[in-house]
Amino acid sequence: MTVLPVPCQAQMPPSAFQPSQPSAQPSAPMQRSVRPSPKRPPLFTRDPRDPDRDCEALKLAALPSAAATARRFAAAQLRKWGLGPLTDDVALVTSELVTNAIVEVGSDTIPGDYAALHDHTPPVITLQLRLTVRRLLCEVWDPSPVPPVPARPHEPDSPAPGDPARADLALEDLAESGRGLGLIASLASRWASYPSPAGGKAVIAWWDLAR
Ligand SMILES: Nc1ncnc2c1ncn2[C@@H]1O[C@H](COP(=O)(O)OP(=O)(O)OP(=O)(O)O)[C@@H](O)[C@H]1O
Ligand SMILES: [Mg+2]
Known about the structure:
alpha+beta, 5-stranded antiparallel beta sheet, binds adenosine-5'-triphosphate, binds magnesium ion, Anti-sigma-factor_SerPK, kinase, nucleotide-binding, HATPase_C_sf
């Protein structure tokens, strides 16, 4: 598998701003008409011991349609990286992380008319897929600082199946929400969340790759 290192927040090389043709006029000292923009803090943190091999990011309006777009983006990226066997798991985890971010900061409906859409510009979330030397990471940033709260994990000393005291756990198992993070935990090697250097927070899931 050949993967070229392409940093996610690539800077344009200074040479990109040089004129391609020499100027007809004798060169006058260049005035900077635009002040350099202050360096923005990154959305995601990096592990300096595990450098990137490749990285692709996608900004998404926090609308319900974003989950399907995120799934397709993940599947295409996994194919590009030759990680086909992980595609279904990564696409599902990506979809769960993006859906959670939308529920937290976005809207569950698309405004019906232009004026409403104009008045309610949805917040933007960022999905980043990163292939490092050791891992594949799926990272979702949203502007809310509130961290995810997993449903109560199943405790090993909880009542056995069939025990009447287990009735509440059985109901919990049937619940139609609160399953996303459990699913992520079962499909990925690990997941975590942390406050982002840029504000908001990142929720990430990763797969340790065989080396
Ligand atoms: N990005 C997020 N920002 C803030 N809170 C979050 C975020 N993701 C998850 N949570 C919190 O963690 C809880 C558990 O998330 P989880 O995905 O397991 O369940 P759910 O989204 O409530 O339901 P389901 O995924 O089964 O439809 C959520 O109800 C929510 O309160
Ligand atoms: Mg969820």
